[in-house]
Amino acid sequence: MSEEKQVGNLIEKYYSSQHLFGGGDTMQFEGELAARNVDFLLPMILMSVNKGVALLKDDLKHGIKDPAQTYSRSMYTEATASLTHDEWLKVNDMIRFMLDSRDSAGKEGAKEYTFSLLTYESEKKTADD
After folding, report:
1. pLDDT tens readout for residues 2-41
2. How far apart are CA 129 and CA 123, in angstroms?
3. What Rg do the C-alpha atoms of the chain give, in angstroms?
4. In the chain, count of helices (H) and strands (E)?
5. How far is CA 59 from CA 13, 69, 91, 122, in A?
6. Euclidean distance between CA atoms 30 and 34, whole angstroms
């Protein structure tokens, strides 16, 4: 809760999602926090991912329409690596640190980009697969 105001006989409580951001513009949630807020978080994640997919689909389907725009607006990357659980956590931390530590504000040509990095354990294949 970020603020509480008395309005007549009512107490209005204001909540912030700032605790989801690690001091920068990077939001992360998993484990207990995600479990407690699943009904809110899943639609928010899907909305964010769908924005990127819609841009990628438009670029691929219609090409780059604006002659002044010479680049795609969305990119999909997938990579698989063999890691221990601790290594996996560290790689995720390193990615967030790298994004949080950049300072491109005010640089000519700098644009806002949203990174939706979903990392997960791959399904194990059995001999029957």
Report:
1. 667 778 888 777 655 544 444 455 666 777 877 888 888 8
2. 11
3. 20
4. 3, 2
5. 43, 11, 30, 29
6. 5
The H or E element containing residue 12 is: strand 10-14
Q: Model confidence over 58-114: pLDDT tens digits?
A: 887 777 666 666 677 888 888 899 999 999 989 988 988 888 887 776 788 788 888
Helix/strand/coil for 80: coil
**If you ran DSSP here, which 8-state letter would residue 121 be given?**
P
Output the six-digit token pair for 47: 């909305």
| 8-state DSSP, 23 | S
Tokens matching residue 72 = 């795609």
CA distances from 22 to 49, 111, 119 (A): 20, 21, 18
0.70 exceeded by the pTM?
no
Taking a C-beta distance cutoff of 8 angstroms, is the pair 76, 118 a contact? no
